[in-house]
Amino acid sequence: MTRAWILPLLLALTGALGAAGSAARGDTAAAAVCALVLTLLAVAHSPLVFPRPVSAAEARRRSADDGRPVVFWRPGCRYCLRLRLALGRRAGLLHWVDIWRDPEGAAAVRAATGGDETVPTVLVAGRPYVNPGPAWVREQLGRSR
């Protein structure tokens, strides 16, 4: 779980140091911009922007009940972030599995991708799709029960 926070913490620390350096030189505008930009990047790359993850077993059970896709993802993945942001509020309708927190989810992704942990991998009706486009995922979500 802690490895999911390494990149966001590094971004926040870099923003704080950059802002402190700019403020020490008397450039408060640059300090504010540096702090704001790197804080936003830290939040965007943190697990906070994703719906609460569930285990792979729970996601599959829920998907069997409601027909909604399962998304295997990991924090810091720009493609996962792109998918999450493109789906907007509808992202909460999907079942999200953080492969860094769930070894079974990571194993499912490796099985689907031939040994790699390529994410996002979306499971629709038991069939995996590696790094699908957001429009396609939205379409699959619309087809669910």
UniProtKB/TrEMBL annotation:
Gene3D superfamilies attached to this UniProt entry: Glutaredoxin
Stretches assigned to the Glutaredoxin domain: 70-127
Spans through the membrane: 28-50
Domain of life: Bacteria
PROSITE patterns: GLUTAREDOXIN_2
Keywords: Membrane, Signal, Transmembrane, Transmembrane helix
InterPro entries in alphabetical order: Glutaredoxin (IPR002109), Thioredoxin-like_sf (IPR036249)
Signal sequence segment: 1-19
Pfam families, per the entry: Glutaredoxin
The protein's name in its UniProt record: Glutaredoxin domain-containing protein
